[in-house]
Amino acid sequence: AQKITQTQPGMFVQEKEAVTLDCTYDTSDPSYGLFWYKQPSSGEMIFLIYQGSYDQQNATEGRYSLNFQKARKSANLVISASQLGDSAMYFCAMREGSTLGRLYFGRGTQLTVWP
Amino acid sequence: DTGVSQDPRHKITKRGQNVTFRCDPISEHNRLYWYRQTLGQGPEFLTYFQNEAQLEKSRLLSDRFSAERPKGSFSTLEIQRTEQGDSAMYLCASSLPGTGEKLFFGSGTQLSVL
C-alpha cells in the first residue's frame, strides 16, 4: 500500500486566490511526522511545513497552512494568496516514528498559478 | 550561507561505466541522506548516515550501489556498471536530529545512462 497518496496530478489557481493540495497517508505507527516540500523547475526540494502526529494545532508557516485531519489520515496543504512564484511541484511526505531517517514521498501535484 | 552542495549537476555516461557523485552537507548537520527521483515520481529513499555510520539502506540500493561518508562530513555515492534504469536525479539531503527535523536538499545530480 502507498504510504502517501496525492490524487491531484495538476492544479490551477489564479493569482491571489487560495488553493488546497490534497494528501492522504497510511501508517499504523502512532508517532509520525508529515511534511510538505516544494520543487521548482530548478530541481531543489524546499521545505515548506511540518506537522507532528501529536500536535494539537494545525501547523502554519506564513502563507502555508496544513489542514491536519488525523481520523481521516489527511494532511492537506493550503496556500493562501497564491503568487506566480508558487508554480512548482509540491510533494507530501511522511516520516514514521520507527524509521529514523526515511521520508516517504507522494507522487506530487504540479501547481500552476496564472495571472 | 552554504546549503547542501552536490557535484556534478549533470552526468552522462555509457552503460557499464562507473560513476561517483559527491554531496557536501550543511556543515553542522550530522545526518545525511541520499534519495533517487525518476520522472513523474516523488523522491525514493536510498540510504542514510548519522555521522560516518550508515544506519539504513533501502532495498533499492543494489550491490552495484555504494555510499560512504568517511569522516562524517561529505558523502559519495558510487554506481558501478551503470544500467539505463539508473537514469534519475540523485538527491542528497542533510539534517540535524530532532522532532520534526527538516531535510535540507541539494539541487541534485541528474544522471543519464546511454
Biggest beta sheet summary of chain A: 6 strands, mixed
Radius of gyration of chain B: 13 Å
Largest interface: A-B, 24 and 27 residues
Question: Poorly predicted ranges of chain B (pLDDT <50, ≥5 residues)?
Answer: none
Number of continuous helical runs of chain A = 0
Give the CA-CA distance, first to last residue of chain A: 38 Å
Structural class of chain B: mainly beta
- Work out the number of β strands of chain A: 12
Number of strands of chain B: 11
Q: How many helical elements of chain B?
A: 0
Please estimate the helix content of chain B: under 10%
What structural class results from the helix and strand content of chain A? mainly beta
Overall 3D form of chain A: globular
Strand content of chain B: over 45%
Q: Taking all residues together, what is the mean pLDDT of chain A?
A: 94
Residue fraction in strands of chain A: over 45%
> Looking at the structure, what is the overall shape of chain B?
globular
Question: Cα-atom Rg of chain A, whole angstroms?
Answer: 14 Å
